[in-house]
Every structure is written in C-alpha cells, then in structure tokens.
Amino acid sequence: MPADYSEPPIGLKWRSNTLFIISTVGIGLFTDLFLYGIVVPILPFILADRLDVPHNKIQTYTSALLACFAGASVLFSLPAGILADKLPARQLPFLLGLVALLASTILLWLGETIPVLVIARILQGISAAVVWTIGLALILDTVGSKKLGVTIGSIFSFISVGELAAPVLGGIVYKKSGSGAVFGMGFGLLAIDFLMRLAVIEKKVAVKYGLKDDEAVDEGEEANEDSPLLANGAGGLDDWEIPKDQPKWIRKFPLLYCLKNPRLLVAELVAFTQAMLLAVFDSTIPTEAQDLFGFDSLKAGLLFMPLVLPYLVLGPLFGKGVDKYGPKLAASIGFAFLVLPLILLRIPHDGGNGEIAKFCVFLGMCGIGMAMISAPSIVEASFVVEQYYRANPEVFGDEGPYAQLYAINSMVFSAGLTLGPLVSGALRDAIGFGNMNAVVAGMCAVVSVLCYVFLGGPSLNSLKKK
Residue 79 carries which DSSP code? Predict the structure, then answer.
C-alpha cells in the first residue's frame, strides 16, 4: 500500500531541518562510539573482577573482545549499504540498528562469561555497520558534497569525544559506582538516540509532503569551477565515464569499478589507518598506564583527556580547510605530524608526576594529528564517487551508490578497529610499548607520502605560487 502524503506529520518543518538531521546522525554515531569506548578502560577490570581471568590473559582477551566488535561490523556493512540504497527511506534500518545496540549493552552489563561478552560485542558491531553506513549517507543526502568537509569535520570532532571521552567517564564512574552506573549512562544515551531517530524526517520524504527545502543543494552551483570539492584535481566528466563493456558483476555493483581509482583506494587507506590508530590508543593506553604508573580504571580513563580536547576543538577547523583546499594537505601533514609524538611515547617510564605529564603531552600531540586526518577520507571518497555518478547516472540509478560507498568505508574503518587491538597487543607483548609505537609511526609516514601523491587538492608548491 503506497504511503499517504496528503496529511503532513506534526513538526514536519523542524523534523526535516538540516541541523536536526545532522544532530540526529551525530547523536547516533556518538552513541555508537560512546558505547564502544565505554568499556575500554573497565574491560580489564571486568575480566579480572567479574570473570576471574588470570592477569597474564587480560591483554589477550581485551584485544579479542575489541576485535569482535569490528569484525562483525566488517561483515555486515556492505549488506546494510545495499539495503539502504534499495529502500525508499533510510529511517527504518537506522532504527533497527539501535535495537541491536540495546541488546548488546544489556549483555555487556549482565554478562558473566566470555562467550556472552563476545556475543555482546558482535551485536554492537552489527549496530555500528548500520549507523555508520546509513548515517553518513543521510549526511550527504542532506548537505550535499559542497559542505561535506566542514560537516564531517564537525561531526567527527563531536563523535570522537564519544569514542575518546567514554573511557574517561567509564573509568571514573566504574571506580566510584561500579559497572551498573556505567551502563546506566549508556541506557540514558540510547533513550535520547531512539527518540531522535524516531522523530527525524528525511529531506526527500519532506518534499513529498509538499515542504519546500530552502536549504536544498543547488546542483548547478555545485558543479561550477569555484566549488571547493570540484576543484580538487578533477577534469571534465569525460574522465570519469565507465566503459560500456563491463562484466555482469560490475554492472550489478558499479561501485566496484570505482575502486580501481587510486584516489579512492588511498582515501580508504586513510580511513583504515585512522581507525587503527584509535584502536591502538584504546587497547594499549589503559594497560600501559596500569603497568607504568599503577593507575586504576579512573586514572587510566583520565589519560584519554589529552586525546579528546584537540579533536573537539580543531576538528571543525581542519574540516573547513579540507573543504577549501582539498584533502591532500590535511591528510599528508596530519600523518607526518603523528610520526613525532608516536616515537616520543617511548620516553615516559616508571615515575611520578613528571613522567605522567610527558605521557599526557605526547598524547595531546597525537590528538592534534588525529583531528587533522578526521575529514579527508570521507570527503575524498565522496568526491570521487560523486564524479563517477555524475558521469554515469544511468549506471548507478536514481539513488546513487552513496550508502554502498559508506558501507565499504565502514568495512575498512572496522577492519582498522579489528586489526588495531590485535596487532598492537601482539607487538606490545613481543617488542614493548615504545617499539610498537615506532612501528605505527612508520606506517603513518608511508600513508603520509601516499596521501600527498594521490589525494586531490593543491600541493604545497601550487599554494606558494598563489
């Protein structure tokens, strides 16, 4: 039975407002990362206190449980993207993802065996696949590509607080009130998230009710040569045309053809490395703080503050820079900058406040670098696929391939979150915390060079000439 669009719902105007849609997606992503990160500093203590896991097995189980979340997200992201591109609206799957997150949170709260905690993290990964895939597609539907960089930069600076501040709050509340209070925060956030997802109305649905969108993206304006994103190294649309004689699997999923483009591949590498860095910090900072300084969950959680603050303050500024100058400089400089503090993290050793202060300063420098690399991946990937879509509208269909693109981005990001704890945990046990960070620094240096060579936007030399 077709939907009846003759009678507009209550609050149609504010429910389909750009700011409300962005806020809803932001809260959804925030909730996902908050509930992902809330167990980071308390997981070793839950394993020891609730499950009586031996101390020498804590790092192994901690890394494995963090990886379960991301592994499930990898497997479910692409199906979520394909489903989202086929459905007339994205709200229903957006809501269903929250059901999985609620079930996960209950199991994490009550679970008393390793298998139950594993199931909880898998459900959390399924929810993440849905919210990241559909949420980012909703953002592009709402603001268009012209404002995507500053929007993503702002959202990422906000949601990264969820991922990085959750360990702070989790550690503090666990120390003061126990795990029940920690998960109580999560349930409160889930309630707010549910109400916002239930209320939101997409722009394309609001138009069917006759609401004129004064903030709609002007495609003609967006396609002119002054558009920041379209100035990032793109030629004419002829350069983006897909040849007609493609195999059946390419015709069915044309986004796969786009993956031949080195700009898109490097953009996904940026997402993978960004996620891996977050996971490295999540899985090693609490255990390193415990070993070096004897920190409990409260103090280990507070160590994440230097990572949070630069992200929160600088994320929107760097996102605006990506919109203006393209992703090349932000990504290449950001990864190059990260090399220094990652190497310096080997300096702090057992000691008092002086050593703790060094550790915090180096983490703060890492936070600045993380803020610089937050927006380039999404902006570059969206731009490349948008160009293919503009040049081949008959290949991609009316809805375009954006949810599938963000599904792939979610898979890549989740793969980084999967490998991060496993690799960092193994390296830390094998060669120590300092050498582990040196390996990660080397990876950042390689990615920095690839970003400068392949991503769109002016080079340093061309900016100097201007």
Answer: H
Low-confidence winner among 6-10, 12-16, 38-42, 153-157 (lowest mean pLDDT)? 38-42
Higher-pLDDT residue of 445, 224: 445
pLDDT in tens, 208-233: 888 776 554 444 444 443 444 444 55
- Comparing C-alpha atoms, which of 359, 315, 328, 329 is closest to residue 341? 359
Q: Which of 418, 397, 427, 455 is nearest to 122 (CA)?
A: 418
**Alpha-carbon span 339 to 429, nearest angstrom:** 21
Distance CA 462, CA 319 (A): 20
| Integer CA distances (angstroms), 405 to 258, 378, 412, in order | 10, 10, 11
**Res 105 pLDDT > 60:** yes
| CB 239, CB 381: distance < 8 Å | no
DSSP state of 42: T
Which amino acid is present at 466? K
pLDDT at 464: 59
Cα-to-chain-centroid distance, residue 35: 14
* pLDDT average, residue stretch 175-204: 88
For residues 15 and 323, give the distance between their C-alpha atoms in angstroms, rounded to a whole number: 27
Q: Report the alpha-carbon angle 33-413-327, nearest 5.
A: 105
Cα(143)–Cα(369) distance, rounded to whole angstroms? 26
Give the span between the Cα atoms of 351 and 371, in whole angstroms.
Answer: 30
CA dist., res. 173 & res. 191, Å (int): 19
